[in-house]
């Protein structure tokens, strides 16, 4: 009997990873302290084939991570950009695990340029994947 393996993305480990934006689309509106905000549902693939999807807020005043991603990948200056132009761009992403509704989620909590990720003496480095087989194996004290 034969079995064809595929590269099913596993959950990215916590820490910094080199990644590529592979999809961005309109997400569900989210409540913020400043009212409802549109969101940009953004999917990244890390260099070790893990898929991480994050919903970035788009409302002025709460969109700092999305603004940072645009500045890093597209450069500063344009007042308006087509977010789909981010697809294929590379950057560093910081992943943190969050426990919610009896599940663990990988969240992108920060972004940086690849140059910054690879700087001399930087604490940022690519971390290998972590396969989670049982929730009892996870240390939730660090989340």
The gyration radius over C-alpha positions equals: 16 Å
Query: Secondary-structure element order, as H and E?
Result: EEEEEHEEH
Class from secondary-structure proportions = mainly beta
Estimated share of beta-strand residues: 35-45%
Count of alpha and pi helical runs: 2
Distance between the terminal alpha carbons, to the nearest Å? 42 Å
Shape: globular
Strand order of the largest sheet: 5-4-1-6-7
Average pLDDT works out at 82
For the secondary structure, the number of strands is: 7
Largest sheet: 5 strands, antiparallel
Sequence stretches where pLDDT stays below 50 over 5 or more residues? 125-129
The percent range for helix content is 10-25%
Structure, described:
It contains 2 helices and 7 strands; from the N terminus they run βββββαββα. The chain is globular. With 143 residues, the protein is mainly beta. Helix content is 10%, strand content 38%. The longest helix has 11 residues. About 3% of the residues have low confidence. Strands 5-4-1-6-7 form a 5-stranded antiparallel β-sheet.
Topology summary:
Elements: E1 15-26, E2 30-32, E3 35-37, E4 39-46, E5 51-57, H1 64-74, E6 90-100, E7 103-112, H2 114-117
Antiparallel strand pairs: 1-4, 1-6, 2-3, 4-5, 6-7
């Amino acid at each position: 009997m034969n079995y064809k393996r595929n590269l099913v993305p596993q959950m990215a480990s916590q820490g910094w990873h080199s990644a590529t934006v592979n999809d961005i689309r309109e997400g569900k509106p989210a409540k913020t302290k400043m009212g409802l905000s549109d969101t940009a549902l953004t999917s990244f693939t890390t260099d070790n084939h893990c898929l991480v999807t994050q919903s970035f807020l788009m409302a002025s005043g709460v969109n700092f991570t999305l603004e940072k991603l645009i500045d890093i990948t597209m450069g500063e200056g344009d007042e308006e950009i087509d977010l789909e132009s981010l697809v294929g761009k590379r950057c560093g992403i910081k992943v943190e695990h969050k426990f919610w509704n009896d599940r663990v989620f990988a969240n992108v909590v920060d972004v940086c340029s690849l140059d910054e990720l690879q700087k001399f003496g930087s604490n940022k480095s690519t971390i290998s994947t972590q396969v989670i087989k049982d929730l009892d194996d996870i240390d939730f004290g660090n989340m």
